[in-house]
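Q: Could you fold this chain for me?
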Amino acid sequence: MADTFDVVIIGSGPGGYVAAIRAGQLGLKTAIIEKDKKLGGTCLHRGCIPTKALLYTSELYSHVLHAAEFGINVSNPSLDWAQAQKHKQKVVDKGAAGIDFLMKKNKVSVFKGAGKIIGKGKVEVALSEGGKKETLETKNIIVATGSVVTTLPSIKLDDKRILSSDSILSLEVVPKSLIVLGAGAVGTEFASIFNHVGSQVTLIEYMPNVLPIEDLDVSKALERELKKRKMDVRTGTRFEKVETSAKGVKVTVTNPDGKQEVLEAEYFLSAVGRAPVTKDIGLESVGVPVGPKGHITVDGMMRTSVPGVFAIGDVTPHPALAHCASAQGIVACEFIAGKNPRPVNYDRIPNATYCYPEVASVGLTEKKAKEKGYDVKTGTFPFSAITKAAISNEGIGFVKIISDKKYDEVLGVHLIGPHATELLAEACVALSLEITTEELAKTVHAHPTLSEIMHEAAEATLGHPIHI
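A: Sure. Below is the predicted structure, expressed as structure tokens.
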């Protein structure tokens, strides 16, 4: 006899498992299906978390190399990459165990196997153990199957020399040299990791700037900082092909001047994107349409065009970010439970890139604000004028505020510098409350802190910065 649920969720990434928790809290009988051995999805096992663990190790090592500047004498520090990998895995395993606990706490039934919709209100699970299939009956289905690594058609990943963002996480050695294709968040973060630990890194980007979605001033500043750290950054450069060689890889590119060049390195990382997982999960069985890029269109409540079928996370045509997926999952489950949730405001989804220096933003860039017709005023303030940044010798980067001249509303905040991804939280709250620049400037910030830079940037936007 088939089990019956209020909601069945396919996929246990940060969209799926958060949706399951919220559904359980709301008293919905909930099941979650995961084809991997452990819950957590790409973010926990092959994305955000392991990457940030290695970033922390690499930055810590870099700081130790300069410890003498702070009066700490460390002779001949060395990097134990195998231990760094163990630390990474420890963090991941702890996260997975935490999700297991939360499923039990919220009375969520967990099914390990591949989930597939086989009809209205029916999801089949091909169980990982025993080879059997089980059918779950449900009132509602949430598709949270996430995304997978994709690459250019001309690139054949071998996970030996030509790597993806998945396989590079398990690299057993620190490369002497690495070529990274794609200077978005993923590529820039991996470039930072290996630059910190001594690899000669070349970062290739087709667009005119690194982190192309960020504010232009921030992108340009990041490129300057990466170059200062001896990284070979090549923007406006077209990738042609990659071939393996006796020593590693040969990469042919066309430079901005139109001339071709062959670059050599031990390893090559393709970091040019991800594709939604919407094939072979039975969407056609209930008539859920899929767009040309594989995405599922949803409304503000995360409903597809088919009643009772919802979609969240990377399978939707919205920011492919863990926190976006989690927010969408909560909206979907609150709607299913008969609540009246507020739709996700995609203009307020924050971006965070954990390269060095960190980059973070929320709201409109200066260019986007002008395109939307705003009469824009901006203000910037450098970390070099913040005493707390000087204490750690990290007076690099700045904060830039975008405001509307007419009503003084803060439209966007963009940071590059130390702990920018943590400092962003204040900006997220500010934009959520539709705060004015004057209100931000009148908010007293503690001294000495890095967060003072938000106050100073607001004062600068109003035309009277204090400490510069």
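A (continued): The mean pLDDT is 96.
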